[in-house]
Structure formats: structure tokens, C-alpha cells
Specification:
By secondary structure, this protein is mainly alpha-helical. Helix content is 60%, strand content 3%. It has a single domain, classed as Cobalamin adenosyltransferase-like (Hypothetical Protein Ta1238, Chain: A). The chain is built from six helices and two strands, in the order ββαααααα. It has a two-stranded antiparallel ribbon with strand order 1-2. Strand 1 and strand 2 form a beta hairpin. The mean pLDDT is 88. Its EC number is 2.5.1.-. Belongs to the Cob(I)alamin adenosyltransferase family. Keywords: ATP-binding, Cobalamin biosynthesis, Nucleotide-binding, Transferase.
């Protein structure tokens, strides 16, 4: 990996470039820094979610996710480098199965709302989707392992499920979208 930062204000990015972990410099507007930035933003939003009261199992899971996202960011910062481990994806699959099994079947689309923690989980979900799109764009331009894309895809699914779990934590429920079409259909039946 690249050198650890000993100072933050280096001024080397004043020209619109950023340094990668392999000591190359690229435009801050290129695909790789976009993907790295979206993953970093996602990690920050998960940090904000961790400020909410959460079940200890969800808290521990999200703290581990933060570490995995840091690994993913490290992988993105060094072209051709693999840092995200296969068991990280397995952990998400297991958590999805565990938390999804506790939830009732969806009746309709849900709004990103409810408790503050659930709403923040939805923000995390949408940022994870954006990070996934940025990684897909990078993978279309450069050869990369599928693991970063797969991790972000699965993580966004898990964050959706966790939002539903967090809404129920205090006896709440999903906030359903009020579809005018379905309301008309129900009225005619």
C-alpha cells in the first residue's frame, strides 16, 4: 500500500490531480477518484447511522462494514490490487438472510422514511447504489475484479432490509407509498 499520510495539506492536488496508492496521479474528475469518493461518502453516512440507537448486532455488523468499505477504498486506490476479501461478501449474504427472515413480505413500495435510524439507513442505501454505479463505470473502462461491485450491490440490499428492521425496532412499520393507481383499483374491487 502507499505511504501513510503524515500531513494533510500537501498542496499536491492544487493542480486538479490526486495521488493513487501506487503513487500515480490522475485527474480528480476521473472514474477512479469518483468511485473512491462515493465509497468514502458511504462510509461517512454509515458512521452517521452508527450515532443512532441500534441493536448491538446491527451496530457490530455496520462497524465491520465500515472496515470492509475502507478495504474496498484501498483496493480502488491501487489499480490491479485486491484487498476486499471473499468472506466480506459472504458476511453480507448471511446478514441479509438473517434480517430478511424477520420481516413480513412487502405489500407495496416503501418510502425512505420512518424512524431517524431507518431514514439514515435509506440514505446509506442510496449512496451505496451511487458508489456501485461509479464502480461499474470504472470497471467498464478498466479491468477490475467483480468483488467491489458485488459488495456494494449486496450492501445496498442489506441497508434496505436494515431500514425495515430499524423501523420495527420501536414498534413501527414500513412507510408505504400511497399509489393512486392501487387506491383506484382497491376502490373498484
Amino acid at each position: 500500500m502507499g505511504n501513510r499520510l503524515t500531513q494533510i495539506a500537501t498542496r499536491t492536488g492544487d493542480d486538479g490531480t490526486t495521488g493513487l496508492g501506487d503513487n500515480t496521479r490522475v485527474s480528480k474528475n476521473s472514474r477512479r477518484p469518483h468511485a473512491m469518493g462515493d465509497v468514502d461518502e458511504l462510509n461517512s453516512h454509515i458512521g452517521l447511522l452508527l450515532c443512532e440507537p441500534l441493536p448491538s448486532s446491527v451496530r457490530e455488523l455496520l462497524i465491520d462494514v465500515q472496515h470492509q468499505l475502507f478495504n474496498l477504498g484501498g483496493e480502488l486506490s491501487i489499480p490491479g490490487f485486491a484487498l476486499l476479501k471473499d468472506d466480506a461478501l459472504l458476511q453480507l449474504d448471511q446478514a441479509l438472510a438473517h434480517y430478511n427472515a424477520q420481516l413480513p413480505r412487502l405489500q407495496e413500495f416503501i418510502l425512505p422514511a420512518g424512524t431517524r435510524a431507518a431514514a439514515q439507513a435509506h440514505v446509506c442505501r442510496t449512496v451505496a447504489r451511487r458508489a456501485e454505479r461509479a464502480v461499474v463505470a470504472l470497471q467498464e473502462a478498466e479491468p477490475m475484479r467483480p468483488a467491489p461491485r458485488q459488495y456494494l450491490n449486496r450492501l445496498s440490499d442489506l441497508l434496505f432490509v436494515l431500514a425495515r428492521v430499524l423501523n420495527r425496532m420501536e414498534g413501527g412499520d414500513d412507510v408505504y407509498w400511497k399509489s393512486e393507481r392501487l387506491a383506484r383499483q382497491d376502490a373498484t374491487e
